[in-house]
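Supplementary Methods, section 5.1.

A reviewer requested that the exact input to the structure prediction be made available. We therefore reproduce it here, unchanged from the version used in the analyses.
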Amino acid sequence: MGKLSNISGKEAAKVFQKMGWQPIGQVGSHLVMVKAGIRVNLSIPQHKELSVGTLRALIRNAGSTVDQFLGLL
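The structure derived from this sequence is encoded token-by-token as follows.
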């Protein structure tokens, strides 16, 4: 398994878009993304740095793995 580092919310959103997630809006400082066929919404904080735990939880909720995420980064 690869090593996650601190990346920005903007960079994370770009990777999730490559995975097929589409932004539907923003609530405060969080970008909300959806994907057809999946009932879960992703709420990505638009901060300069996301903590590793937050990023790992977003990846898990998206139905992906850390290695797949790092491959698209």
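The chain has a mean pLDDT of 92. These observations are discussed further in the main text.
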